[in-house]
Design goal:
149 residues, rod-shaped
């Protein structure tokens, strides 16, 4: 083997080593870029996850506020219904009391009318059996001179 062959072989070996080294350097650089891109994507995913957790917490808070508001509204409605029912019951009591008073007034009016009718009949019967008394028109008052003297 001649020196030029050896030089060519040596140049080939050096070229092969340089190519392998460059290939590895490029691969490492590419891997580092892919690793950086993957890390960036992971960081972005973590940011998105944190935002999603924040939005979920906000939604839960709003839902709790809505449930609280609904409970307060239900309480107010229940109170209003209870007041309405009490007012209706009171109105029914008042109407029943009023009707009882009207019925009692009618009964008393009927009784009084019957009593007065019987008295009129009694008075009329008494007048028919004896001469009428002179109670009407009233007799003139006695003179004042006879009382003092």
């Amino acid at each position: 083997m001649t020196a030029s062959t050896l030089l060519v072989l040596l140049a080939l070996v050096v070229g092969l080593c340089a190519g392998a080294w460059l290939s590895r350097a490029f691969a490492t650089s590419r891997d580092e870029r892919e690793l950086a891109r993957a890390r960036e994507e992971v960081a972005h995913a973590r940011t998105d996850a944190a935002e999603a957790r924040s939005e979920v917490a906000d939604a839960r808070r709003e839902a709790a506020e809505a449930r609280t508001s609904a409970a307060e509204t239900q309480s107010e409605v229940a109170g209003a219904i209870a007041q309405r029912d009490a007012a209706l019951a009171r109105a029914q009591e008042i109407a029943a009391d009023r009707q009882a008073m009207v019925d009692q007034f009618r009964l008393l009016s009927t009784e009084v009318a019957e009593r007065q009718g019987k008295q009129v009949d009694t008075v009329t019967a008494q007048r028919g059996s004896r001469p009428p008394s002179r109670s009407w028109p009233p007799s003139p008052p006695a003179s004042s001179s006879s009382r003092h003297g």
